[in-house]
Amino acid sequence: MQDSDNFWVRDTEVDGRSAVVSWSARSGESGVCRNSHGANTWHACDYELPEFIAGGAPNSVAWAHYTYNAETNDYNLTSSGYAVCTDKGCPAIA
Asked: What's the start-to-end Cα distance of the chain, in Å?
């Protein structure tokens, strides 16, 4: 049984907006993890991502951090990057 891959999203701003991570894996999976719980809270999203893709190459995950205003459906990009997974899993992303 594969260990789950948790994405934790922290909201640090008292601004009325949600903290959001949009992500895509080299293996084809993608998703959005949104923390709508308010400032100074964490939210976890649980996924099952393969550590390796076809041919044995390590999987990788690209992400983008956004803030989101649900009233206006407005997303604001704050940062982005990627991480390479190994047989030990994917590293924590700060």
From this structure: 27
Cα separation, 21 vs 9, whole angstroms = 7
Q: Does domain 5-84 have CATH number 2.60.40?
A: yes
Most confidently predicted of 20-29, 49-58, 79-88: 20-29
Q: Tens of pLDDT along 7-38? A: 899 999 999 999 999 999 999 999 999 999 99
Q: Residue 30, class by beta-carbon neighbours within 10 Å (0-12 exposed, 13-18 middle, 19+ buried)? A: exposed
Three-state secondary-structure class, residue 80: strand
